[in-house]
Write a structure and sequence with these properties.
Structural class: mainly alpha
Number of helices: 3
Largest sheet: none
Strand content: under 5%
Helix content: over 70%
Order of helices and strands: HHH
Distance between the termini: 64 Å
Length: about 80
Protein backbone atom coordinates (compact mmCIF):
# COMPACT_ATOMS: atom_id res chain seq x y z
CA UNK A 1 0.00 0.00 0.00
CA UNK A 2 2.91 2.33 0.70
CA UNK A 3 4.21 1.81 -2.82
CA UNK A 4 0.83 2.85 -4.22
CA UNK A 5 0.83 6.06 -2.22
CA UNK A 6 4.35 6.78 -3.48
CA UNK A 7 3.13 6.15 -7.03
CA UNK A 8 0.25 8.58 -6.56
CA UNK A 9 2.72 11.15 -5.26
CA UNK A 10 4.91 10.45 -8.29
CA UNK A 11 1.94 11.00 -10.59
CA UNK A 12 1.38 14.37 -8.97
CA UNK A 13 5.06 15.30 -9.20
CA UNK A 14 5.12 14.43 -12.91
CA UNK A 15 2.48 17.09 -13.47
CA UNK A 16 4.89 19.64 -12.00
CA UNK A 17 7.55 18.99 -14.65
CA UNK A 18 7.64 21.97 -16.97
CA UNK A 19 10.36 20.97 -19.42
CA UNK A 20 8.29 18.18 -21.01
CA UNK A 21 5.53 18.68 -23.57
CA UNK A 22 2.06 18.78 -22.03
CA UNK A 23 0.92 15.60 -23.78
CA UNK A 24 3.85 13.64 -22.31
CA UNK A 25 3.14 15.01 -18.84
CA UNK A 26 -0.53 14.08 -19.22
CA UNK A 27 0.26 10.53 -20.38
CA UNK A 28 2.85 9.92 -17.65
CA UNK A 29 0.71 11.28 -14.83
CA UNK A 30 -2.42 9.45 -15.99
CA UNK A 31 -0.51 6.19 -16.41
CA UNK A 32 1.12 6.48 -13.00
CA UNK A 33 -2.24 7.29 -11.42
CA UNK A 34 -3.90 4.26 -13.00
CA UNK A 35 -1.06 1.97 -11.92
CA UNK A 36 -1.27 3.32 -8.37
CA UNK A 37 -5.03 2.81 -8.15
CA UNK A 38 -4.72 -0.73 -9.53
CA UNK A 39 -2.11 -1.45 -6.85
CA UNK A 40 -4.31 0.14 -4.16
CA UNK A 41 -7.43 -1.79 -5.08
CA UNK A 42 -6.75 -5.14 -3.28
CA UNK A 43 -6.21 -3.55 0.16
CA UNK A 44 -9.18 -1.24 -0.34
CA UNK A 45 -11.31 -4.16 -1.51
CA UNK A 46 -10.55 -6.14 1.62
CA UNK A 47 -11.32 -3.14 3.83
CA UNK A 48 -14.57 -2.22 2.07
CA UNK A 49 -16.06 -5.58 1.12
CA UNK A 50 -14.35 -8.36 3.06
CA UNK A 51 -14.25 -6.86 6.55
CA UNK A 52 -16.90 -9.12 8.08
CA UNK A 53 -14.78 -12.29 8.40
CA UNK A 54 -11.93 -10.28 9.92
CA UNK A 55 -14.33 -8.79 12.44
CA UNK A 56 -15.62 -12.23 13.40
CA UNK A 57 -12.09 -13.56 13.86
CA UNK A 58 -11.20 -10.54 16.00
CA UNK A 59 -14.25 -11.14 18.20
CA UNK A 60 -13.30 -14.81 18.63
CA UNK A 61 -9.78 -13.86 19.68
CA UNK A 62 -11.20 -11.37 22.17
CA UNK A 63 -13.43 -14.10 23.60
CA UNK A 64 -10.46 -16.44 23.91
CA UNK A 65 -8.42 -13.72 25.55
CA UNK A 66 -11.01 -13.22 28.28
CA UNK A 67 -11.70 -16.95 28.81
CA UNK A 68 -10.86 -18.45 32.18
CA UNK A 69 -8.57 -21.46 32.11
CA UNK A 70 -8.73 -24.12 34.79
CA UNK A 71 -6.00 -26.73 35.06
CA UNK A 72 -6.74 -29.87 37.06
CA UNK A 73 -4.32 -32.67 37.77
CA UNK A 74 -5.54 -36.27 37.81
CA UNK A 75 -5.70 -37.88 41.23
CA UNK A 76 -3.07 -40.46 41.94
CA UNK A 77 -4.26 -43.97 43.01
CA UNK A 78 -1.24 -44.84 45.15
Amino acid sequence: MTISVIQLLGAYLVTQLTFLPKIIIYLLSTGAGIIAWVALWPPLDSILYEWSPYRQIKLRYQQLQSAQIEITLPESNE
